[in-house]
TrEMBL record:
Protein name: Putative dehydratase, YjhG/YagF family
Keywords of the record: Lyase
Native organism: Granulicella pectinivorans
Cellular component per GO, a single term: cytosol
InterPro entries to which the protein is assigned, alphabetical: Dehydratase_YjhG/YagF, Dihydro-acid_dehy_C, DiOHA_6PGluconate_deHydtase_CS, ILV_EDD_C, ILV_EDD_N, IlvD/EDD_N
Keyword Plastid: no
A GO term, aspect molecular function: xylonate dehydratase activity
């Protein structure tokens, strides 16, 4: 219980502190290393910057060393011994300050000047089921803008190191770095947290509320498992959700050093990546290798290939196009993702895709990104001619990895520590096929999703898949306009076997395209959960499982037919997991059944539901974000701000208003 604090402790100060107050200080010793030419030609900002650097204690004889900026998503405040003074929003950014320090010391030792700044990030796990989720995806664009402004605010920078870990900070950082153009930039992934020696992973423990409501676990069990799930104080979650997938994508883009993604947070091998990244950015600067030399259309496609091979989070369908847009490259569309997923086999057995459900740190020891790339290179699925931040091509990186001591020792250590064969974690295409691993992402269409939607088809219970590799579900619609209403219905037993939960008003304009893991996790607690499907214009967490279809477009509040569904309508879902084809259709009203084509006409004849409305707590900031991303290509365009398009639309609107005013003058 917090103590009562009297007014005297707020207003009064120890008098001896007054006597110690000063108005002058001697200032740093020495002199700035400036020349007459600098005084005559340099902008005042450069000269004053030297004064400030000296004031902060930098050796004045080294003030003209090349300058490099380190940006991070660090959050919280740690004491020197690691104990908490102020908590961060999540474990993912709690330790990344250590990576900043390691990179900075290496830059300093190599005769460069490191600068450091931070834009912290929120936690999707912490905001699940709360109004905080309404700010989650919009935050990404805001953070990317601030990070870019910070980069430009050090005009003397020679390059930028970005340190980030989790769901929104990592994509935001990559979007910012992607804009670096001729200057080098490198992403240092913040790694992953370790598994508890006994207990559940961070994904599983997020379901304790729903399981307790269904009397599946005791209060004691929930309290103990919840306490130890985050076994170490730093790193992203132990499953292949958005955080881990973003780390994989960064390395696949060539923006991170080989075997940097998914490293164990807080450990020596994790810190080593920061030191080597500092060396790498100096190497890039010396050889005039810029970010635009790394991020190319071929690099974007390589990232999509690795996303498919890992079976990554569907949230990257929003983030990869945004990174491409920031780099001035073509944004991949749904057809591109679909084509890649049909061509590329899934090779990684990780949480939550299964079948073995290995943790991300175990994937790291098995070889992570470069090990998967070896298989993909043999299959001819990668462009290995692309340049990477190591200063070498991807082909050269993979040649090094294949023969490296690092690879041999870490794979052996996985077997010694956990008794796991690394070839069971990262499989060859033939072995993956024998184990039943299938591509993860399917893009259904239909009269309820004319512009498309997405499902992680591997998350469907395998016992529901027919001999023809097809999942079929037909059931009555249970319509909800808020996540909380759907959660209440699940916990109170009002959702039955065979139902189709339809959560609308969850898209950008409705709820900031909220992530609804709380619904999918609550469904897990039901004995018949595999027989309930979910349709939504919102999005899902990378750890979600079940027949969950999201990103339904257009969203309800943009006039999409999903906003015309009524309680009890019959919905048919068909997903072919081998061919990656699917449909989502209205096929019935009451006892009447009709074809999907007739369903188009039925939906067109209906007015939008009269109760459609944005979330009652939707912030004005998010409303503005939704309007801007809608003008910029919407969900399938990556939810970006396309400045040229937005400005053109505003100018057309201004011209129209001006013309209207002249006409009525």
């Amino acid at each position: 219980m917090m103590p009562d604090i009297p007014a005297s402790r707020i207003l009064d100060t120890d008098p001896k502190l007054f006597a110690e107050a000063k108005t002058h200080a001697p200032g740093p010793e020495g002199a700035l290393p400036i020349t007459p030419e600098m005084l005559l030609t340099q902008p005042s900002g450069n000269l004053f910057g030297l004064s400030q650097s000296a004031g902060m204690g930098w050796d004045v004889t080294r003030l003209l060393d090349p300058e490099f900026l380190i940006l991070s998503t660090h959050g919280g405040l740690r004491a020197a011994d690691g104990t908490a003074i102020a908590l961060g929003f999540h474990t993912g950014h709690w330790e990344v300050g250590l990576l900043v320090g390691e990179a900075a010391r290496e830059l300093r030792n190599l005769r460069a000047i490191p600068y450091a700044g931070a834009v912290t990030d929120p936690c999707d796990g912490r905001t699940q089921g709360t109004a905080g989720m309404l700010d989650s995806l919009p935050y990404r664009n805001d953070a990317a803008m601030v990070l870019r402004r910070l980069m430009r605010s050090l005009p003397t920078r020679r390059g930028v190191l970005g340190v980030a870990t989790c769901d929104k900070g990592l994509p935001a950082m990559m979007m910012a770095l992607a804009s670096s153009g001729p200057l080098p930039s490198i992403l240092i992934p913040g790694g992953v947290t370790l598994l508890p020696e006994q207990g559940e992973d961070a994904g599983g423990v997020q379901t304790i509320g729903a399981r307790y409501a269904q009397q599946q676990i005791t209060l004691k069990y929930a309290a103990e498992m919840g306490c130890r799930a985050c076994a170490t104080p730093g790193g992203g979650c132990q499953f292949l959700g958005t955080a881990a997938t973003s780390q994989v994508v960064a390395e696949a883009l060539g923006l991170s050093l080989p075997h940097a993604a998914l490293s164990p947070s807080g450990q020596a091998i994790w810190l080593d990546a920061a030191a080597r990244s500092a060396r790498a950015i100096l190497h890039m600067a010396q050889r005039n290798i810029g970010t635009r030399d790394i991020l190319t259309d071929a690099a974007i496609r390589n990232a999509m290939v690795l996303h498919a091979a890992f079976g990554g989070s569907t949230n990257l369908l929003l983030h990869v196009p945004a990174i491409a847009h920031a780099a001035g490259l073509r944004r991949p569309v749904a057809a591109d993702w679909s084509a890649v997923n049909r061509e590329v086999p899934r090779l990684v057995d990780a949480l939550p895709n299964g079948p073995g459900n290995f943790a991300t740190v175990q994937v790291f020891l098995a070889g992570a990104v470069p090990e998967v790339m070896l298989h993909l290179r043999r299959a001819g699925l990668l462009d290995t001619s692309v340049l990477t931040v190591s200063g070498q091509t991807l082909d050269e990186n993979l040649n090094w990895w294949e023969q490296s001591e690092r690879r041999a020792l870490l794979r052996t250590r996985l077997t010694a520590l956990d008794g796991i064969d690394p070839d069971d974690v990262i499989l060859s295409p033939d072995r993956a096929r024998q184990r039943g691993l299938t591509s993860t992402v399917c893009f259904p269409v239909g009269n309820l999703a004319p512009d498309g939607c997405v499902i992680k088809s591997t998350s469907i219970d395998p016992t529901l898949i027919g001999a023809d590799s097809t999942y079929r579900h037909t059931g009555p619609a249970r319509v909800f306009l808020t996540e909380s209403a759907a959660i209440d219905a699940i916990k109170q037993g009002a959702v039955g076997q065979g139902d189709v939960i339809v959560l609308i008003c969850g898209g950008p304009a409705g709820a900031g395209m909220q992530e609804i893991y709380q619904i999918t996790s609550a469904l897990k607690s039901l004995p018949f959960c595999k027989h309930v499907a979910v349709l939504t214009d919102a999005r899902f967490s990378g750890v979600s499982t079940g027949a969950c279809i999201g990103h339904i477009s257009p969203e309800a509040l943009a006039g999409g037919p999903i906003g015309r569904i009524l309680e009890g309508d019959t919905i048919e879902i068909v997903i072919n997991r081998s061919q990656l084809h699917g449909t989502v259709n209205l096929i019935g009203e009451g006892d009447e059944r009709f074809s999907p084509e007739d369903g188009i006409q039925r939906l067109a004849s209906r007015a939008p539901r009269p109760d459609l409305a944005p979330h009652p707590d939707l912030p004005a900031d998010t409303r503005l974000w939704a309007a801007l991303v809608q003008a910029s290509g919407g969900v399938w365009g990556g939810c970006v701000y396309d400045t040229d398009t937005i400005v053109a639309q505003l100018q057309r609107g201004a011209l129209s208003t001006s013309t209207y005013g002249d006409t009525n003058a």
